[in-house]
Amino acid sequence: MKRVLAMAAWAVLLSACTESAQTLGSASRDVPAYQGTGKAFVAAGWKQGDKAAWESQLKARMQLGQNDYGRMN
Q1: Residue 57 is part of which domain span?
Q2: Which helix (H) or strand (E) is 21 found in, with range?
Q3: Calpha distance 68→73 (Å, rounded)
Q4: Element (H or E) spanning 9, and its range?
Q5: Residues 1-40, buried b or exposed e (16+ Cβ, 10 A)?
Q6: Number of domains composing the chain
Q7: For the chain, what is the total number of helices (H) and then of strands (E)?
Q8: Residue 8 placed within a domain
Q9: Can you say whether residue 45 is alpha, beta or left, with left for phi > 0 and alpha for psi between -120 and 50 degrees?
Q10: Nearest partner of 50 among 36, 62, 29, 63, judged by Cα
Q11: pLDDT per position as a tens digit, 38-69
């Protein structure tokens, strides 16, 4: 009886170690980032679907906000 309970306990513990499947749902869409999300909350000067404006926003962000060398000098 103890052996059966021990085996059952091991089975429960080992089942917690398994990994569940990670599949994309049918609601996912594969579109370029510059297409936007359809939400109204966007950066000023950028229109959803405008690739050139998207690239200029990224360039400005890199130069003004996320470039530590440029900020310190």
Answers
A1: 47-73
A2: none
A3: 9
A4: helix 2-15
A5: eeeeeeeeeeeeeeeeeeeeeeeeeeeeeeeeebeeeeee
A6: 1
A7: 3, 0
A8: no
A9: left
A10: 36
A11: 777 777 777 888 889 888 888 888 777 766 66
